[in-house]
Design a protein that fits this description.
By secondary structure, the chain is an alpha/beta fold. The protein has a single domain, classed as Transcription Regulator spoIIAA (2-Layer Sandwich). The chain contains 4 helices and 4 strands, in the order βαβαβααβ.
């Protein structure tokens, strides 16, 4: 009999966001995502629970993170926002079909 045991340690990075994610502040978010990728992170949970507003620039930053993570064998999951208005935009844009969506 042969027994082979392989242990894999997967680094999950949680990014919790609060407030508005829009064109005025998305640059800092993109920079932070890029730094995390450069540091070797590939598995992300982006917690949108406390996000009150998300515009197209914020959504583009999330898609960019998803593409970068997947190109390195990783993935991105999103935590549903608490506010219905923020949830609605994710449903309308079908983000809930592209990303794995998690409950808070």
């Amino acid at each position: 009999m042969e027994i082979e045991v392989t242990e894999q340690i997967i680094r999950n990075t949680t990014v919790a966001l609060t407030g508005r994610i829009d064109a005025f502040n998305v640059g800092a978010l993109r920079e932070r995502f890029s730094q995390l990728i450069e540091d070797g992170a590939t598995q992300f949970v982006v917690d949108l629970g406390n996000v009150s507003f998300l515009d197209s620039a914020g959504m583009a930053a999330l898609v960019s993170l998803l593409k970068q993570a997947r190109s390195k064998g990783g993935d991105v999951s999103l935590v549903w926002p608490k506010l219905e208005a923020a949830k609605r935009i994710l449903r309308l844009t079908k983000f809930d079909r592209v990303f794995t969506m998690l409950e808070a």
